[in-house]
Amino acid sequence: MPERGPRASAAEIVLLVALLAWGMFPVVLLLAHAGQLNARFTGADGLIGADGVLGADQLQYLAWARDAAHHVLSSDLFSLEPSGHVYLEPLFTITGGLYRLGLSLPLAYLIWKPIAAGALLLASVAWARRMFGGQLAARAAAVALALFLYLPLTSLFSWAGLGSGPFRFQMYLLGYEVLAANKLWGYDPSALGLALVPVALLATERALDPQRGLDRQRALDPQRGRHRARRVRTEEIRRGPVVLAALASALASWLHPWQGVTLVVIFVGLALWQRLRHWLALSLPALGAALPLAYYYWLSHGDAAWKLASQYEVISRLQPLVLLAGLGPLVLIAAPGLRRPDGDIIEQSLLLWIGACFVTYFLNDAFAAHALQGLSFPLAVLAVRSGQRLRMPVALGAGVVALLTIPGLAYDARKFVRTARSGQLVQYYLPQSDARALDWLADRAPPGGVLAPTPFAVVVPSQTARAVWVGHGYWSRDYPARARQVDALFRGHMRPAAARAFVRRTGATLLIADCKQHGNLARLLRPLIASEQHFGCARVYVLRPAGRSASR
């Protein structure tokens, strides 16, 4: 009979169902609203976006995937400036392949959501089992906190509306980054990258300390442990975990480079802690994590679009008071769970993981808070150990876990419900007139770039595979200024001569006005317009080639 590992506990199954439900919640909500509005779901389901445009990041992912469907390598479709096909990312490339095979683009991307949820659950379970063995209650608490930990003061500030607007937003952002489950809301690459970090660390321990791996197998399954006693000590078996650690590190870094930096720091720290005793074995997973980082470094210096995005500062650093207020209470809860590593590789990895998150945070200038993703995994272990050291009753411990998870999750759920019901948000779903206009633009319009108003412009690349002059806060040059200009045009706030000069400067050959635009572009741009297509309240304008305007 084939060997079987330890069965999943009832608590782990419940947590898997909860994680899947949490990940699917925004999609189900948006699909229901799209059905009520007779609108098209765009595939975006994120709650945080570029320059306040919700779902903008997912629409960029979908644009990359659609471009990859035709070119394998993706380019930047949020600029009309020349952009090479230079970006290769496994998740988006596979999504593009599924789209090419006939799946709708949103469905091809949504397939990753249950995969990411399963990966996160399995990674957190493996991490908790290694730390707590057969202690079912402790394991369940560690898994729940690793996945659903919501910083306590972040939850309080959000519910009570405490602090100034910028401070409260930064507190919310900190909690959003630490909450692993929220990566399933549109950020599946981040979720998968995070799930691979425990895999890399556990595989590294198996490679460097096979006897401890044998002891763990004996604790969980004595018969299997005895059966493998001779094989686990051979050098041949140790190579497998090293390769697994290297592959997991490389893929984690490729999917989410902040995890790559964190892993490199952990492996370097382990080598130093081990006094370079295992430096050769540690160099392979470190190299695996470093190679994608080198690729992203080349992209940010060798491609104009990536250079622009890498220099864009959303929030380069959170205020020190935000870090103190957000993480301070959790550190106090976790501190009693600290123990001396005493040469134990996984215990050293646990402490290094916490330190590496902050090293990564201070090494990055842009999107620095992404480095704190994954912090919940080591802190969950320390928090549960604190409860054990304090001899906390199981019922009281369950109450603490509930307090550290449920209020914040409830706030985010309410926030998404209110956001989805706030109006016809074009980044989430498109009215039929807008959808038909985009279909014509994708399939029947002549070649060329597109000029569209914001935030409608953010959906154009993923729906049409065409580039826009402005659309995404990170990938469109001078986004705030360009957005003001293009919106003034579509609202009819420009004089005719200025409007025509502006349109020619953009280099666009097509204009699309969604149903929210009421400016008379036909009057403003009449000498430039070759044809006009009507789709209910939406319009598409085809421009004459430069130098061939109609006579007045």
Number of helices: 25
- C-alpha geometry: elongated
Beginning-to-end CA distance, first to last residue: 86 Å
Structural class of the secondary elements?
Answer: mainly alpha
Mean pLDDT: 88
* Unreliable segments of 5+ consecutive residues: 1-5, 220-237
The percentage of residues in β strands lies in under 5%
Q: Write down how many β-strands occur, each being a DSSP E stretch of 2 or more residues.
A: 6
Lateral strand order in the biggest sheet: 3-4-6-5
> What level of helicity do the residues show?
55-70%
Supply the number of structural domains.
2
Short description:
62% of the residues lie in helices and 4% in strands. The protein has helices at residues 10-37, 56-71, 90-100, 105-110, 112-132, 136-148, 152-160, 165-178, 188-208, 210-220, 222-227, 235-255, 257-273, 279-302, 304-311, 320-334, 345-363, 376-389, 394-403, 406-420, 432-443, 460-464, 479-490, 496-506, 521-524, and strands at residues 40-41, 429-430, 450-451, 510-513, 529-535, 538-543.
Describe the structure.
The structure is a single chain. This protein has 552 residues and is mainly alpha-helical. It has 2 domains: 113-419, no CATH class; 429-543, no CATH class. It contains 25 helices and 6 strands. Strands 3-4-6-5 form a 4-stranded mixed beta sheet. A hairpin with a 2-residue loop joins strand 5 and strand 6 (538-543). The model is unreliable at 1-5 and 220-237 (pLDDT under 50).
